[in-house]
Amino acid sequence: xxxxxxxxRVVAVVGDRPILLSELRQRGRPHMIRISMQAPNPSQQxxxxxxxxxxxxxxxxxxxxxxxxxxxxxxxxxxxxxDTGIRQVAAQAKLTANDLVNEAKRQGLSEQDYxxxxxxxLLEGKLFQLRVRGRVRVTEQDGRAxxxxxxxxxxxxxxxxxxxxxxxxxxxxxPDTMRARTVLADEMTRxxxxxxxxxxxxxxxxEDPSTKATCGSRGxxxxxxxxxxxxxxxxxxxxxxxxxxxxFRDPAGNQALLVVQVASSAQSIPAxxxxxxxxxxxxxVEATERQRKLWLQELRRGVYIDVRL
Length: 309
What we know:
- This protein is an alpha+beta fold.
- 57% of the residues lie in helices and 13% in strands.
- The strands form two sheets. A four-stranded antiparallel β-sheet has the order 4-3-6-5, with helices on both faces. A three-stranded antiparallel β-sheet has the order 2-1-7.
- The longest helix has 32 residues, at 42-73.
- The chain is elongated, with a radius of gyration of 29 Å.
């Protein structure tokens, strides 16, 4: 006896309007193509697909709410406005409108799918101007707060070059051996701080053969790619300064004592006054997103929403 297969089902209901599985899959086609190209194995591909559909369905629920709000406000988007929107996107991408539509087709969208996507974006823009824009207020304090967050992100992403003298500690070493290694590490720090050439110390004493020829450096690396112990040294030392010996254990359980010198730190961060305009723009974008989320939460109140995915 042949098994029946489910060809259609409701994956969400917003008010009295259903969202069908076929609609969700239609909207997800461009994402599926990207996932199939990027996910290295079937299990990761399946996990990425599940997460993509979850996020896309949440977005489609928001769109249903926005469409309801647009109907109440009597907002519409004409075919001419869609055409203009496509031309503007094409100009920004330095393409013709036809080339843009053809690129959308290569990503799994039909021309009508792409026009529908532009229409949704334009409708959202009109709703933003009507319901959200007036709520957004950005102060100097907001700009400085955005600057602080940007500085933290910049520091994590900017490269830093560390020279590291490595003294290995064998598993099961006796207390006497450990003390001797610690004394040697202290001696390396003292000599480096006294002005002795750190590269020569690395050549003579480091037990990491892969970095002896580069003064103990593996080249500039983003701060957030370093182990916590090294991140702390990189953020507390100035170029040319040497750390106290650091006790380090890698993920494989190997232990070592490290003496770290900063060869070069991340690029200097501009003062707030130099980037004030960009930070105010950043604060505006952040405030706009907060207000958009609050507005969507308000739209959800009193509306029946049932997600069944």
